[in-house]
Amino acid sequence: MLPMASIQPHRDGYRVQVYVKGRRQSKVCPTRREAAQWAMEREAELSGAKLPDKTLEDACKRFRRDECPKRGGGKSEAVRLKRFEREDALAKRRMDAMLPADFADWRDARLGQVKPATVAREMNTLRSILELARREWGWIRANPMQDVRWPDRPRGRARRVSQEEVEGIATALGVWDVLRADTKIHRTGLAFLFALETGMRSGEICALRWPDIHLSDRYVRVVKSKNGDSRDVPLTLRAVEILKALPLKFGPAFDLADDVRDALYRRMRDRTPHRGVHFHDARSEAIWRLSKKMDVLELARVIGHRDPRSLMIYYRADVRDIAQRLG
């Protein structure tokens, strides 16, 4: 047994642990001999003497299993990775033999199949996998995507929602004149109005539970947002009214699965003249409104954007308004 490896009896055989350069890994093997062999191989890999024989598909599967459940948007990432593993030849390549040109060629091929924004999302996921493989798994020594250019993406949708559109959609959902929560359609309407007040994402609203709602202090805690962080979101008086319309019960406060919310919103909206209004547009409208009351750093914290630069579109004042403020 190597000096940095520890092998102990285990109910399923032998547990072996290796510790190299501050990194510890362990495995249960059926025999002591297999445990010792695994220890020698892993110590060589972790010390940099040898890289494991792994493909990009192996890395994608490990990421789907271990990382996607912990990430906001992990379900969507898992779907994209399954498609990548199934359809793209790049997934079968050995990781230690991959070059930036391989990913550039793959990017260009994908741009002929899907929109640039889709390619950019897929590249972000692959880059995260490769970074984990480099930093923590010891599967590669350098990230081959480090110098690969991302495709040009169109500016994100930041559509305003007019009062006429709000009234029309809220009326179709049965919550314009009275805030009621008797049916899933009503609660979909309340979720839409709540998004207009808070700028929260649909998934965040549907995941809200009463222990995370603090009406007396007028804020809610988003336990896990899209980027994996938690944050506190202040509530307007109207947002408090919306929450008070919901019945107190165990489980999510809106008692609404996000996919059900999506289907009901689309169905009822399409009965109005306002088919161009997406549910997510309520978040954009809320950000526009909040940008008139908060500075960009405050808004970034409330909305859950790590990069305040992505919010600068909401701070574009008309030059005539600026001239008036100058006096």
Q: Can you characterise this structure?
A:
The chain is mainly α. Helix content is 46%, strand content 9%. A three-stranded antiparallel beta sheet has the order 1-2-3, covered by helices on one side. It has a three-stranded antiparallel beta sheet with strand order 4-5-6. The chain is elongated and about 75 Å long. The mean pLDDT is 87.
Quick take:
With 327 residues, the protein is mainly alpha-helical. Helices cover 46% and strands 9% of the residues.
Write the element-wise H/E pattern from the N-terminal end onward. Answer: EEEHHHHHHHHEEEHHHHH
Give the integer mean of the pLDDT values.
87
For the sheet with most strands, the description reads: 3 strands, antiparallel
Proportion of helical residues: 40-55%
DSSP, total strands: 6
* Unreliable spans: none
Task: Estimate the global geometry from the Cα principal axes.
Answer: elongated
Spatial extent as radius of gyration: 25 Å
The percentage of residues in β strands lies in 5-15%
Structural class: mainly alpha
What kind of oligomer do you see? single chain
Strand line-up across the major sheet: 1-2-3
Alpha-carbon distance between the two ends: 81 Å
**Helical stretch tally:** 13
Kindly list the characteristics that best describe this protein:
327 residues, mainly alpha, three-stranded antiparallel β-sheet, 13 helices, 6 strands, 46% helix, 9% strand, elongated
